């Protein structure tokens, strides 16, 4: 018994072994065709005629020194190599490997990938002052996963990325980084991809625009003829901006009995203001011991309108300040939410208003569709930000 146990123990420690024990190298790939792409290379080739062929492997080194290895099974005759900057030619090595993990002689090929997408993104980069910070725009036509690094100098005087740097694959990047004092400051910007290739750096001096939260005590509810009917006597317009962020008695609800028509709410923010954003807390339904933020009357699609004079409620007399979609990070089916959804919603979400929109005094929110597929709305709180003196 001791002998058997010992033998089995040794076999377990050896780990995976090749499927076969053929030490004869397989043939090499042939007829290699190279397609140079932005930051990438596509290879097509003819497989060697070996019965025990298992896969093809290509090895290469990126310009930043990272060693790469890409494998493709014997069921296909092509592979994609990624991670190049496209600023130089590179030599790659292609091997055929059999089921004994025996490699063929290498086939050496020189490739010349086109300039990587990060450089196109960097060349489109535009920065400008925004309320409380910096606004950044760039084009990412191939929707690459990139980091748009926003940097300032640390106490040692070295440039370092801020935690608010942008990580995205959006085709059109339009983002504001906030939390800065309205004084002249130096910023630096660069684009990096997931292989840690980085562009040159754009240096600029920007003075963020002063931004403040509009005082709740200056706000007043307004009811126009086409505003939505409330759900019950316990809810009122003032609950939108009374400082309550969670409970039903501090939230605003429109009637569920009205399936079609305008679901609008109107209020006075106190003075004409150049708005920067609205931070909105959706009402979270307490279901099964958790709070669901993307449920029932929580808005999914909505619009924000503004005006300086009141009318009978006809929207033709109002300026559309923005149209928005609420994004559920997890993408889970309706009534299912995870911690990513909770984190994204529990502290409210900023819905930005373009700096080219006019200053307004009166605001309206129009719910287009809620998460239940209707139009009634359930909102816990709204904070309004901007600059009355802009």
UniProtKB/TrEMBL annotation:
Residues 9-113 form the DUF4959 domain. It comes from the Bacteria. Signal peptide: none annotated. Transmembrane segments: none annotated. Residues 251-386 form the DUF5000 domain. SUPFAM superfamilies: Fibronectin type III. InterPro entries: DUF4959 (IPR032527), DUF5000 (IPR032164), DUF5126 (IPR033431), FN3_sf (IPR036116). Residues 115-216 form the DUF5126 domain. This is DUF4959 domain-containing protein. The lineage of its organism: Bacteria, Pseudomonadati, Bacteroidota, Flavobacteriia, Flavobacteriales.
């Amino acid at each position: 018994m001791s002998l058997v146990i010992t033998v089995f123990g040794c076999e377990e420690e050896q780990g995976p072994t090749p499927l076969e024990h053929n030490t004869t190298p397989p043939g090499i790939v042939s007829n290699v065709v190279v397609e140079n792409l932005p930051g990438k290379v596509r290879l097509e080739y003819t497989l060697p005629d070996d019965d025990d062929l298992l896969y093809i492997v290509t090895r290469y080194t990126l310009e930043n020194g990272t060693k790469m290895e890409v494998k493709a099974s014997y069921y296909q005759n092509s592979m994609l190599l990624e991670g190049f900057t496209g600023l130089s030619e590179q030599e790659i090595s292609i091997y055929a490997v059999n089921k004994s993990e025996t490699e063929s002689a290498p086939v050496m090929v020189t490739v010349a990938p086109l300039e990587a997408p990060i450089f196109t993104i960097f060349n489109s980069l535009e920065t400008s002052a925004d309320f409380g910070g910096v606004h950044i725009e760039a084009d990412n036509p191939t929707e690459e996963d990139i980091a748009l690094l926003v940097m300032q100098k640390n106490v040692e005087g070295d440039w370092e990325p801020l935690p608010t740097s942008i990580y995205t694959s959006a085709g059109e990047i339009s983002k504001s980084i906030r939390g800065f004092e309205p004084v002249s400051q130096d910023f630096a910007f660069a684009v990096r991809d997931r292989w840690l290739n980085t562009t040159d750096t754009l240096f600029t001096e920007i003075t963020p625009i002063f931004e403040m939260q509009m005082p709740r005590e200056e706000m007043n509810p307004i009811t126009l003829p086409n505003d939505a009917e409330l759900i019950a006597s316990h809810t009122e317009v003032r609950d939108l901006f009374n400082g309550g962020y969670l409970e039903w008695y501090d939230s605003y609800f429109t009637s569920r009995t009205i399936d079609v028509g305008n679901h609008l709410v109107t209020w006075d923010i106190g003075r004409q203001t150049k708005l920067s954003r609205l931070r909105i807390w959706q009402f979270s339904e307490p279901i099964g011991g958790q709070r669901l933020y993307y449920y029932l009357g929580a808005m999914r699609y909505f619009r924000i309108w503004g005006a300086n004079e009141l009318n009978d409620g006809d929207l033709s007399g109002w300026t559309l300040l923005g149209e928005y979609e609420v994004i559920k990070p997890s993408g889970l089916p309706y009534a299912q939410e995870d911690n990513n959804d909770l984190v994204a919603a529990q502290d409210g979400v900023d819905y930005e208003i373009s700096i080219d929109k006019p200053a307004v005094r009166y605001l309206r929110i129009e719910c287009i569709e809620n998460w239940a597929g209707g139009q009634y709305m359930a909102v816990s709180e709204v904070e309004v930000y901007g600059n009355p003196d802009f």
